[in-house]
């Protein structure tokens, strides 16, 4: 499997966000908590619930193309070179990843809004009060 063109997480970034330890380097293009919706290149989060333990599905996640798995313990039956990001508690690790990703998403959202505003028709920009100083007709 090839690495994502624009990874959401590198192993170093995920380690820093979760205070976990990666077994090897990886790049993940997304995050998934369900092997049925996991896309190749995603980081699988093995959440432990009341009825099921996500660690039971780590092998299935790698078969589906997961780049790595966020785990609190190494499940049996995995390849020696499986990329595991080991943390004390997977739910807290997932929360830390989400918290660390939030500033990135805010910057992206602000950039998209700025571009959309700039590319809007001139009449719409004038109606919203957005003045583009280098536009000669405003």
Number of helices: 4
The named CATH superfamily: MurE/MurF, N-terminal domain
The assigned CATH architecture is: 3-Layer(aba) Sandwich
Percent helix range? 25-40%
Q: How many structural domains?
A: 1
Distance between the termini: 51 Å
Could you give the count of β-strands? 7
Low-confidence stretches: 134-138
- The value of Rg in angstroms is 20 Å
Strand order of the largest sheet: 2-7-6-5-4
**Class computed from helices, strands and strand pairing:** alpha/beta
Order of helices and strands: EHEEEEHEEHH
Enter the CATH topology name: Udp-n-acetylmuramoylalanyl-d-glutamate--2,6- Diaminopimelate Ligase, Chain: A, domain 1
Shape: globular
Q: What is the CATH level 1 assignment?
A: Alpha Beta
> Which strand-content bin applies to the residues?
5-15%
Biggest sheet: strands, sense, closure?
5 strands, mixed
User: Mean pLDDT, as a whole number?
Assistant: 82
Concise summary:
The protein has 138 residues and is α/β, with parallel strands linked by helices.
Write up this protein.
The protein is α/β, with parallel strands linked by helices and 138 residues long. It has a single domain, classed as MurE/MurF, N-terminal domain (Udp-n-acetylmuramoylalanyl-d-glutamate--2,6- Diaminopimelate Ligase, Chain: A, domain 1), CATH 3.40.1390. It has helices at residues 11-18, 58-63, 90-119, 122-128; strands at residues 9-10, 21-22, 27-28, 30-32, 42-45, 68-71, 84-86. A 5-stranded mixed β-sheet has the order 2-7-6-5-4. It has a two-stranded antiparallel ribbon with strand order 1-3.
